[in-house]
């Protein structure tokens, strides 16, 4: 006993359907493989985070916090700065992030 149709027209229809389905499956596999290659390429070529960041306020004319480069609490308005700029910002009264404590990492003592 077979589960295939006994006549040629229905077998041809089934063959067409299966070929079409197989083509869609292969295309989906190719798309997912391409996405995985792109993801891996992005991870491998991601630039290093800046060593220090300065978070700016809503109007972007004053600084809100100084952060370490990988701080999870840095806002979207943060930009990378170098160590002398981070020290200068702390000396100018910009508060250090209370989560990543860049003042401790920089060895900055208030006063």
Q: What percent of residues are in strands?
A: 5-15%
Give the helices and strands as they follow along the chain. HEEEHH
Number of separate structural domains = 2
Mean pLDDT: 91
Low-confidence stretches: none
Let me know the largest β-sheet: 3 strands, antiparallel
Structural class: alpha+beta
What is the approximate shape? rod-shaped
If helices are DSSP runs of H or I spanning 4 or more residues, what is the number of helices?
3
Strand ordering within the main sheet? 2-1-3
Could you please describe the fold and organization of this structure?
This protein has 111 residues and is an alpha+beta fold. β1 (52-56) and β2 (63-68) form a beta hairpin. It has helices at 8-44, 83-91, 102-106; strands spanning 52-56, 63-68, 78-81. A three-stranded antiparallel beta sheet has the order 2-1-3. The protein folds into two domains: 7-46; 52-106, no CATH class. It is 46% helix and 14% strand. The model has no long low-confidence stretch (mean pLDDT 91).
List keywords for this structure.
about 110 residues, alpha+beta, 3 strands, three-stranded antiparallel sheet
Give the topology, please.
Layout: H1 8-44, E1 52-56, E2 63-68, E3 78-81, H2 83-91, H3 102-106
Antiparallel strand pairs: 1-2, 1-3
Short description:
The protein has 111 residues and is α+β, with helices and mostly antiparallel strands. 46% of the residues lie in helices and 14% in strands. It folds into two domains: 40 residues; 55 residues, no CATH class.
